[in-house]
Amino acid sequence: MDHVELPVVYVVSDSIGETAEFVVKAVASQFNSGHIEIRRVPFVYEIETILDIVEEAGEFNSIIAYTLVLPELKKTLETAAEKKSIPVVDILGPMMNAFIAIMKDGPRMEPGLMRRLDEEYFHRIAAIEFAVKYDDGKDPRGMLRADAVLVGVSRTSKTPLSMYLAHKRIKVANLPLVPEIELPEELFMIPPNRIVGLTISPQQLYDIRVERLKTLGLTANANYANMKRIIEELEYAEKCMKKLGCPMFDVSNKAVEEVANYIYQYIKEGRKLDGR
């Protein structure tokens, strides 16, 4: 039986080339058995690489499908392929032109943006899952893996801040400070620049706790909303923070976004300090 040489489709991309390969396979499936040879060439940034691909493709019954955003690379590929009568398909081009027609700002023309966006998305999801898993001191071991650990008495916005920072891809654990409960040893194994203390004015904390009790259908006379107890907790928390050597952020009368942005900048500087 004679050997039948399969058509070759070169998938050329400035990223990993998954998008173009998916389109090629979808189209190929419409032609009999869809048997083709796909040669993916990812991370193409040089004109020399383009010319080498076209030279090789000229030796086969081939097509070149590409996802390139840099104009000089696209032009080089199309010109060189035309000289060798090789069909070329711009996978992104028609959609790019449609967006240009309706968008106020032009395209950024940066290679690999979708891959970076995907990576950012998965890092964000991982940070959110981390914040949920290590919320409210559930497992002190998580503190050792956290980018930051938030400590403070109950109702100082530890959980909302953890989730806000998680959306910025910061892995945060948080721990409530309670006078009757000793600090976990893991907390002393973390560099101080990765711990953030949260404090608040006694009156505002009292008001917040009273409202919290009301939403739970409980009496406002509970020890949780007792001013003497609140002051005791805040004094204990301050002693803990000084012992840990961590900074203290006052959340009194501040929006979560405002405090989170302060903490985010602090964490970024802290990462630089410990080389993370």
Your description of this structure?
The protein has helices spanning 18-28, 47-57, 71-83, 93-102, 113-133, 158-166, 202-215, 227-244, 256-274, and strands at residues 8-13, 37-41, 62-67, 88-90, 148-152, 172-176, 195-199, 248-250. The chain has 276 residues and is an alpha/beta fold. The chain folds into two domains: 8-102, 3-Layer(aba) Sandwich (Rossmann fold), CATH 3.40.50; 113-274, Rossmann fold. Strands 2-1-3-4 form a four-stranded parallel beta sheet, with helices on both faces. Strands 6-5-7-8 form a four-stranded parallel beta sheet, with helices on both faces. Helix 5 runs antiparallel to helix 6 (158-166) and helix 6 (158-166) packs across helix 9 (256-274). It is elongated.
What does the secondary structure layout of this molecule look like, with pairings?
Elements: E1 8-13, H1 18-28, E2 37-41, H2 47-57, E3 62-67, H3 71-83, E4 88-90, H4 93-102, H5 113-133, E5 148-152, H6 158-166, E6 172-176, E7 195-199, H7 202-215, H8 227-244, E8 248-250, H9 256-274
Parallel strand pairs: 1-2, 1-3, 3-4, 5-6, 5-7, 7-8
Helix pairs in contact: 2-3, 5-6, 6-9, 7-8
Number of contiguous helices = 9
Q: How confident is the prediction overall: mean pLDDT?
A: 88
Strand content: 5-15%
H and E order: EHEHEHEHHEHEEHHEH
Strand order of the largest sheet: 2-1-3-4
Distance linking N and C termini? 61 Å
Low-confidence stretches: 272-276
Summarize this entry quickly:
With 276 residues, this protein is of the alpha/beta class.
Descriptive terms for the model:
276 residues, Rossmann fold, 9 helices, 8 strands, 14% strand, disordered C terminus
